[in-house]
Amino acid sequence: MNASQLSELLRSNVVELTFQRRRPNNRGSFRRMLCTMNESILNSVNGRTVLNYLPPAGFNKTYNPVQKNLALAWDILVQDFRMISAESVSIQQTYNTDEEFWNYFNANIIPMSSAEKAAYMNQ
Fold first, then answer.
1. Which helix (H) or strand (E) holds 90?
2. When you count CB atoms within 10 A of the terminal residue's CB, does the N or C end of the chain come out lower?
3. Neighbours of 14 (CB within 10 A)
4. Residues 21-34: tens digit of each pLDDT
5. Which of 106, 84, 87 lies closest to 10, judged by CA?
6. What is the pTM of this model?
7. How many domains, in total, are found in the chain?
8. How do beta strands 80-85 and 90-95 pair?
9. Nearest Cα residue to 88 out of 19, 29, 25
10. Domain span including residue 56
11. Phi and psi dihedrals of 76, rounded to 5?
C-alpha cells in the first residue's frame, strides 16, 4: 500500500490498522491504531467533543511526507495527528459509516481504562 491509497482509505473510513514503528521502543516494534481523516466524523459534534478533534493549523514539515510514504491520520485514542508509514501497514478493520464506527466506539473503546487503551495500541 502506498501513502496516497492509505490517505484515500482514511478519508472515507475509520480504520483499525497495525504498522511497524520506524523507531521501535520498549513497547515493541509494532503499533496498533484506530484512526481516520473522515471529515463527517471528525467535524461532527461527537468528533469535536468526544474525540477532541481540532482541524490542523498547518504543517510546517521540513520533509515531504509523500516522498517518505507517510500518510496523515487522526489517532482516535491519542487524540492527535500522527504520520503513518504506509509501507508496513496492515488493515485490520474498516468502519465505513458514522453509525458503524460510533456503535463500535461506544461498545468497545469508551469502556476501556487507560491501561487497556495502552495495551490495545501496543498489541
1. strand 90-95
2. C
3. 26
4. 777 677 778 889 99
5. 84
6. 0.88
7. 1
8. unpaired
9. 19
10. 3-121
11. -65, -35
